[in-house]
Amino acid sequence: MSVGPSPLRLSLLLGMLIGLPVLADDLFLDGSALPEVLTATRLKQSPAAVPGSMTVLDTELIRASGARDISELLRLVPGMMVGAISGNQATVNYHGTNASEARRMQVLIDGRSVYRAGLATVDWSDIPVAMEDIERIEVFRGPNTVSYGANALMAVVNIITRAPANSHGTRVKVTRGQRGISDWYASQGTGWETGDLRLSLSGQEDDGFDKNRLGADYRDSKRLNRVSLSVSQMLNEQQSIDWQLNAKEGTNQRPYTYKPVFYGVSQQGKDSDVIAKDYAGSLRWNLELNPQHSLYVQGSAQHWDRQQTWRACDAAISFSPELTRLWQINPNYAERLARGIKGFSDAGAPPPGSPAEQAIAQQVLTQWNAGGKQTVCGNIDQSTRETRYDLELQDTLSLSDNLRLVSGMNYRYDRADSETYFNGTLDDTTWRLFGQLEWRASEHWLIQGGAMYEDTQLTGNSLTPRIAVNYLINPRHGLRAVYSEAIRSPDMFENNVNWSYRVTGLSSPVYGQSSAQYFVKTRGPGNLDQEHMRSRELGYNGYFVDQALNLDIKLFYDEISGMISEPLRNNQYIASNSNSSRFSGTESQLDWQLSHADRLRLTYAYVHAQASNPLDQRLTASNSGSAGWLRNWGRGWSSALFYYGDSALNGYRFERIDTRIAKHLALGKANLELAGTLQQRLDHQPSTFADNRYDSRHLVYFSAELEF
């Protein structure tokens, strides 16, 4: 996408061109029902009244996109940077920063967080919800720790599943296509006088990218199976219970990427595939005290299990107790010795250093010459397990016709278990209080204020506020000014890592042992502070009834201080709060139901990023956007055409056109839909990283879905 006129001018011009012809006829019509969103403040609000920017991906859009993964859907959100670490590891961040982890974005399924606090990540490919079970996705584009706590630093993605009451009957779907695509879905929904149930089973499989940068086969396929049970039960006119059970198991391939530290080791180990298992359960009690007062209590439990064992090879000297002691004294010196050990051995002298360092280094060189250069292979267990228990109470109260309050408290317990990363088990406890007050000061002025207090066992406490002023021209058209602050707590891996490898089953005993400790050991600083964000936003949201057109324009300026941005490697672990970033720019989105048959959707974002760490700045595409045209041709035929593009993410351009054609057939009381999707890349570049390459620039897959 070329950089043309000022993006600010383009956004404003877009609003003027579309708005002016219909402004006089539309602004004073108040009779129609208003769409509502919930994610922004936990209060039901019209989009014009929200204290921030919202994007809603509805059922029609989700189906028409033909997307197989949630991450692909988020390309429809302005300002969302969507890429790939590998074929089974998507990367999604709002405006940018870290490419490999969603460290600064909260992701929810029906209000339950799936952000993993132990390793600071969201496993997009492993989220235990099928695309067919999603009703809509609400994305709050901006900081929202006020409503959802730390880690909602830059955005909130709330995946809302179909209610059991809307899922009656049987659905079966099969998808097949190129690159090993083999997906399936089946669900059964039923109801009784006071309740409803939906049970769904699904699976997904593909081969990932074809080739890496060297032209070799890329080992990054995925295979997973999921099961989901959702039940809603009315207890009486005022009370109801909703509960869910979700499980997922699968395999994500990982290539062998270990590079031996020591000279002369050529033997290669085995691939390090991950067996991924997720389990989640939640129970929510809803109580409607009266039309002005309601509350709920929700409890949930989740468990993430990543089993990863593999076999690696290096020199026997890797397990030297003396080299381990040298690493503990001076890691830089120990690494310099290890990587140049042949040269130092040939010279007969260790590298320059302190007398103590040189004395130990001389012992290591002696061990190297006495058989330490022998290649040995052993088993490495890099498995991780994380568990979360969460309890939340929320109270929603209309104090008067012009004043609403939502408040609540949350308790969360997180435990991470890994012999490699934590030398056992590490846990954390978080308490949170939150509140949001909405005051309709007059017919046109809406003032909203909120705050969140959070206390975390490992990182301390924080208080973050938000204040917003909305001027409602009428209930469907609003201008907004928002100031908010947000924080992100350093995760367990960043702050408290205790990283070391116990290698078992060695091919040859070293120092009289069949298992030994690798010499590199890393400890986290333990005293990292929270990252802090200040955000300013000006915006407009309008819904033109006669034209069925929704328009949102946003201008933003965000600053993050105390960022933890350094690469966190076992042999180079330098975590600090010394980094910062600034993001400024504009975003716009337009959704226009041109007629009963045609729907047009456009998004565009210009993001100017400035970062103290150059890696953060590379992970923001200055220009990005999407365009979609949905068409119902009649007689059961429909089509959708989408364009996605960004100027450069991590230095690589991305442009793609997706075309989906579907035919709907009525078979008595059943309905059958046959659909084909073609994805065509318009560029010739890898996706996000150099190893992510396909042999062909196009992808075709077909689906058949039967409902009865």
Q: Which architecture of the largest domain per CATH?
A: Beta Barrel
**Largest β sheet strand count, sense and barrel closure:** 22 strands, antiparallel, barrel
Q: How far apart are the first and last residues' alpha carbons, in Å?
A: 44 Å
What is the β-strand count?
37
Rounded Rg: 27 Å
The CATH superfamily label of the largest domain reads: TonB-dependent receptor, beta-barrel domain
The top-level CATH class of the largest domain is Mainly Beta
The percentage of residues in β strands lies in: over 45%
CATH domain topology of the largest domain: Maltoporin, Chain A
Shape type: globular
Helix content: 10-25%
Domain TonB-dependent receptor plug: 49-155
Family: Belongs to the TonB-dependent receptor family.
Keywords: Cell outer membrane, Membrane, TonB box, Transmembrane, Transmembrane beta strand, Transport
GO cellular component, one term: cell outer membrane
